[in-house]
């Protein structure tokens, strides 16, 4: 099963949903294998859809997932990494009206460069990144707080 979580921000990420539907329509993914938490995006035509997911169900789905596709928020990514899941992060972009700024691009880039995740900025690459992810090993995430400190100081400049 593939768990896709687009978060709880009051911004849409319809480009992710549209691409997932495209991949299902073109037999690159099976609808029965895709669970989508769509938040403020549109629903998938094919996947199992949840607007929001309570924590207990999210943890259950996360444990069952082969991998996770999520927006570029640190909470979603780190939760998946802590569960030892492979992650494809699609950063929210202001040019698509998915957020007010592009800080998620920077966060995702740091995690990608450190070898923890895959990233997708051009949504048309999602299908090929899924195939890459299935055959690639990633750096195992170990929570020591250092990554969070690095992101806060170097990416968010706080």
TrEMBL record:
Q: Output this protein's name.
A: Glycosyltransferase
SUPFAM superfamilies (alphabetical) = UDP-Glycosyltransferase/glycogen phosphorylase
Do you know which InterPro entries this protein is assigned to? Alg13-like (IPR039042), Glyco_trans_28_C (IPR007235)
Give any Pfam family that matches: Glyco_tran_28_C
| Protein family according to the UniProt entry | Belongs to the glycosyltransferase 28 family.
Q: Which UniProt keywords apply?
A: Endoplasmic reticulum, Glycosyltransferase, Transferase
Limits of the Glycosyl transferase family 28 C-terminal domain:
1-142
What organism does the UniProt record list as the source?
Heyndrickxia faecalis
Chief location of this protein? endoplasmic reticulum
| Cell location | Endoplasmic reticulum
């Amino acid at each position: 099963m593939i768990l896709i979580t687009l978060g709880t921000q009051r911004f849409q990420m319809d480009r992710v949903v549209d691409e997932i539907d495209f991949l299902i329509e073109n037999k690159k993914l099976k609808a029965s294998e895709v669970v989508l938490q769509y938040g403020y995006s549109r629903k998938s035509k094919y996947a199992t859809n949840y607007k929001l997911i309570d924590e207990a169900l999210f943890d259950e789905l996360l444990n069952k997932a082969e991998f996770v596709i999520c927006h570029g928020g640190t909470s979603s990514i780190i939760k998946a990494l802590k569960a030892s899941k492979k992650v494809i992060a699609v950063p929210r972009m202001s040019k698509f009206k998915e957020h007010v700024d592009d800080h998620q691009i920077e966060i995702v880039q740091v995690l990608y460069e450190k070898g923890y995740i895959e990233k997708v900025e051009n949504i048309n690459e999602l299908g090929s990144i899924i195939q890459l992810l299935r055959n690639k090993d990633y750096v195992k995430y170990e929570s020591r707080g250092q990554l969070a400190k690095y992101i806060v100081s170097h990416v968010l400049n706080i």
